């Protein structure tokens, strides 16, 4: 039965999931419904709503290489994966650039499940001497996926809310015996579950895994297991050497949001770190967006903030190229680039005069 008595509610300025609402002044008439909500109704957004929504900006863990999500790092045994993991963990935990790529600093958890503390001590002291950090956390044991690993990781993040990166070395160590069938479904479900966890906490989960012995035309087809691993992952790294004793390696990188890349690396045998020799394939630069360039010029050290309507922003920019709706949609779609490339945050607030655009230079 439907009660025809209606209540009105105003939509808040920010959606429940943290996204900016596409219209913060909409009033809904909500009938009181005693029956169950249709379980087959799809939750949808039309294109207008999609373009008018501001999603939280995505801040990369390592610029152009590693983002929030779940990634595979794959190579044959003893190829140098663990050294790379230690190097990556140290870089993120100290905020040190990796191969010249900007890093987002935060706590790191490295589950070195095939190591012991004495070996880790020797490795890290050789790599970085006594230049230590309390943001880099290491463990040599953990539960499996079905016996409490997620709860352990939840507890760690609860105690270390600045966590940016968790490395699981290796996938074999956290799989349960019943999952050892390597079917597409089981492989997909494992990575998909880790991916949900990473997205929930806005972190990167990097899972170390092995390659199979058989060669393949596509280097990513050498990943051990089914295609379900790659199908669910947000990206993958494959490290290969021409021969085991070589100090040089090729690192192939593929991801959902970044261009495919190939790095030629060399292992520094004295310091035990990987060094970048060459970016083999040149990645095309993202074209500059004139509106973002103009805003970057407009916001100076003396006036680092703009707070006004879309019309006022157009007037401030002295431009007749944009309409109010166009300018906000360009900003919405490029909120990541605005923050990561120009150090400018975007927000919207509504007051009695209407919706205001707030642009703030934060660095």
Structure report:
- This protein has helices at residues 47-51, 81-94, 117-128, 149-159, 171-174, 184-201, 228-232, 290-298, 310-317, 324-333, 335-342, and strands at residues 2-10, 27-33, 69-75, 107-112, 136-139, 163-169, 204-210, 235-240, 248-255, 261-268, 273-279, 305-308, 344-351, 354-361.
- With 363 residues, the chain is an alpha/beta fold.
- The chain has three domains: 2-51, no CATH class; 69-279, Rossmann fold (3-Layer(aba) Sandwich), CATH 3.40.50.300; 290-361, Arc Repressor Mutant, subunit A, CATH 1.10.10.
- Strands 5-4-6-7-3-8-9-10-11 form a nine-stranded mixed β-sheet. A three-stranded antiparallel β-sheet has the order 12-14-13. Strands 1-2 form a two-stranded antiparallel sheet.
- A hairpin with a 4-residue loop joins strand 10 and strand 11.
- The chain is globular.
- Residues 1-31 have low confidence and may be disordered.
Identify the notable features of this structure and list them briefly:
single chain, 363 residues, alpha/beta, Rossmann fold, Arc Repressor Mutant, subunit A, 3 domains, nine-stranded mixed sheet, three-stranded antiparallel sheet, 11 helices, 29% helix, 26% strand, globular, disordered N terminus
